[in-house]
Amino acid sequence: MKEIRIHGRGGQGSVTAAELLAVAAFEDGKFSQAFPAFGVERRGAPVMAFVRLDDKPIRLRSQIYEPDYVIVQDATLVDVVDVARGAKPDGFILINTEKSPEHFKMVTKASIKTLDATKLAMDFIGKPIVNTTLIGAFAGVSGLIRPESIKNAVMERFPGKVGEKNAAAIQAAYDMMEAQR
Amino acid sequence: MRKRMVVVEGSYAVAHAVKVCKPNVISAYPITPQTHIVEDLSQFAADGEMNCEYMNVESEFSAISALIGASAAGARTYTSTTSQGLALMHEALFNASGMRLPIVMTVVNRALSAPINIWNDQQDSISQRDTGWIQLYAEDVQESADMTPQLYKIAEDEDILLPAMACMDGFILSHVYEPVILLEQSLTDEFLPDYTPEFVLDPKNPMSFGAFADPSTYTEFRYKQEKAMGVALKRIEEVALEFSEKYGRYYGGLLDGYMLEDAEIVIMAMGSVIGTIKDTIDMLRKEGENVGLLKVRSFRPFPADEIRKALKNAKVVITLDKNISVGKNEGALCTEVKACMYNNRDVLAPVIGFMLGHGGRDIPVSTIVKMINKAKLVEKGIFIESEFADLREDLA
Fold this sequence. Notes:
The complex is a heterodimer. Chain A is α/β, with parallel strands linked by helices. Chain A has helices at residues 14-27, 117-124, 131-142, 147-157, 161-178, and strands at 2-9, 31-36, 46-54, 69-72, 92-96, 111-115. In chain A, helix 1 crosses helix 3 (131-142) and helix 4 (147-157) packs antiparallel against helix 5 (161-178). The A-B interface holds A 18-19, 22-23, 26, 29, 31-36, 38, 40, 57-63, 65 and B 2, 5, 7, 9, 118-119, 140, 171-172, 175-179, 272-276, 278-279, 360, 362-365.
């Protein structure tokens, strides 16, 4: 089983990102489960969402404490939340930032990957909504999910132009991060 | 099977299951505490996908009251609620069962105030235990959805005619996205017969429902409700098997065992924690521990005989309760499991009651392992009657 924890701020679409990952992974032949860390959500407040992927149906219902992968939608969260908490040493923490991985001095054995998803989102979507770009990048680094499946999931959720722009951002992020696998 | 699955939110899967059961009247109070279930249903109704009367009412008390009227007039009825909303329905729940109206309601289990808390536990439905409603508890999203046609079939049985609650854990099941098979209309049409009650409110043939019963007859109304619950005990099993034949899915009828046969320590629980327990059992079995699970699917009617039979080989029984009767220091499952053993000495295993998962407190594998370790101490003469399994030491 692979476990993913997504950190974001209320309004950034962390829960949507988790749902889209679950849909895409299922299309790729995996079983999946996505759920938010339910809170009293407010725009801007730190939020979390979780994804599990496995080759067999998933029964476990607890939150995720030792994620294989962590996705951080907003680099300012690193100062507020222990995003590296419990991260497995052979996994990675993917952070949306223009800075390089060396900039982040977290106590973790997991590798740190960075990507300026905000810039990509602005270029392709025209809005600083980074959730779809980041799951494209996640697919690139992890190799767990095909980019086509992610694009399909996104275009099904957001039909028309919006979906197409997001799909372009996903592919760009995937191509950029594939080399770092 | 994978081919027929889609990844959707738990609430959507349930709303879809309700749709294919073709209720005539749905009424709901569409603000907090509520779920996407009625939101999705109102969308189906507005889009013309359902041929039903969808009523937006001004409170949960009105929601259930409207259904009591509609059900008495012969309609198949549905609503969904949670926590304070269910508590507000309390008075009318007795009317529904006393008038023998087979209303089906999904209860999305959430904690009660105060303090204010929106998260999952089962205090809400457990607090309605004595209202005369059937109560089944679902383990995953698929079971939550599949329970809907099953409960209509059970509730509307002419020898039962009791309202029923399909209980699913709030957020953990209502808000999770996971692969499910959305119930097929054609199979459901074959599985679930039309509701054709013998007695209905009809201006052409006036009659009274729930009118008045003085001391000379009131007792017999309660007696007959109890008898109907006895019939439901059999029908819940039968309908689960009929469902399995038609749809190919089975979750147990009244109970379901997992690694139970040779288990020395048996965990009993209800709802979504079942999955986490199964994973824990698999892990412990690999380490050579004889641990098993007895899932309680039906809490009302309470399957006392079946529980005794299932626990025959147990050395220690652990009950998990996401509720508490304050002042008894126990949850309801613990109290009832113990009570069903006292006059029947087939089962000699001691019962340890653990309360946990209140107000959304997460239940990780480690909490379940901790409880099992405490059960092992019984051998050494250390016995805990009941306790909170997941207290924060710093606040306790």
